[in-house]
Design goal:
Length: about 120
């Protein structure tokens, strides 16, 4: 069992930056691939990015590639999402999720544990 708590969301102007954090407790954090997803009002939850267990590999949705960066600190049981050059279309609730699989996944249903989400609002 893993408990995930996101923080760092808020209101930012277009072009600004935010860094989200996701703190994990429970079983060995380093045994999970960690993903970030987001859900805008009236839309399905969508993949943002994922980082491998050891942090050596990260993959991103095309919509955020080059602007967002995922990192993790296994000693602190925390994964981060650095978001730069934010756009109004990035407005959503952002969720972190943990996946016990060895290979990273971009699919919502593959993830075993989810945080409660944190709101990110980008004003134009």
């Amino acid at each position: 069992q893993v408990q995930l708590v996101e923080s760092g969301g808020g209101l930012v102007q277009a072009g600004g930056s935010l860094r989200l954090s996701c703190a994990a407790s429970g079983r060995a954090f380093s045994s999970y691939c960690m993903g970030w997803f987001r859900q805008a009002p009236g839309k399905e939850r969508e993949f943002v990015g994922v980082i491998s267990r050891g942090g050596g590999n990260a993959y991103y949705a095309n919509s955020v590639k080059g602007r967002f960066t995922i990192s993790r600190d296994n000693a602190k049981n925390t994964v981060y999402l650095q978001m730069n050059s934010l756009k109004p279309e990035d407005t959503a609730v952002y969720y972190c999720a943990a996946d016990q699989a060895i290979l990273v996944s971009t699919t919502v249903r593959e993830y075993d544990y989810w945080g409660q989400g944190t709101q990110v609002t980008v004003s134009s």
